UniProtKB/TrEMBL annotation:
One term under GO cellular component: cytoplasm
SUPFAM superfamilies listed in its UniProt record: PLP-dependent transferases
Example of a GO MF term: aromatic-L-amino-acid decarboxylase activity
Keyword vocabulary terms for this entry: Decarboxylase, Lyase
Gene3D superfamilies: Aspartate Aminotransferase, domain 1 (3.90.1150.10)
Assembly and binders: Homodimer.
Domain of life: Eukaryota
Name by which UniProt lists this protein: Aromatic-L-amino-acid decarboxylase
Gene Ontology biological-process annotations: catecholamine metabolic process; serotonin biosynthetic process
Length: 104
């Protein structure tokens, strides 16, 4: 499970839209949108969870909202991790697009 979390961590580090909030700890990867507000990250988490393909849990530390991705099952595969990142990335693109519309 830890190796799969390392894979997910690498996906986040390579992603132009997302950033690690803190370094990975065992199977837990904490991330958020780059250059974003708490509201944007809340919206990202809401859309992901409403979609129901994956479920993520958010948290707030020192007033900063972030999202937690945990690899918890021995049945999880590399393909599952890759798909989860793809889902998150696509919703992140939508949030960025929508934020640009609002700011215009």
């Amino acid at each position: 499970m830890v190796d799969l979390a390392k894979n997910f961590e690498a996906f986040i580090q390579e992603d132009q839209l997302l950033e690690l909030f803190v370094p990975r700890t065992l199977g837990m990867v904490c991330f958020r949108l780059k250059d974003s507000t708490n509201e944007m990250n809340e919206e990202l988490n809401r859309r992901i969870n409403e979609d129901r393909r994956i479920h993520l849990v958010a948290s707030v530390v020192h007033g900063i909202y972030f999202i937690r991705f945990a690899v918890c099952s021995t049945l999880t595969t590399y393909e599952d991790i890759k798909q989860a990142h793809s889902i998150i990335h696509n919703f992140a693109k939508d949030i960025r697009r929508d934020a640009k519309k609002i700011l215009k």
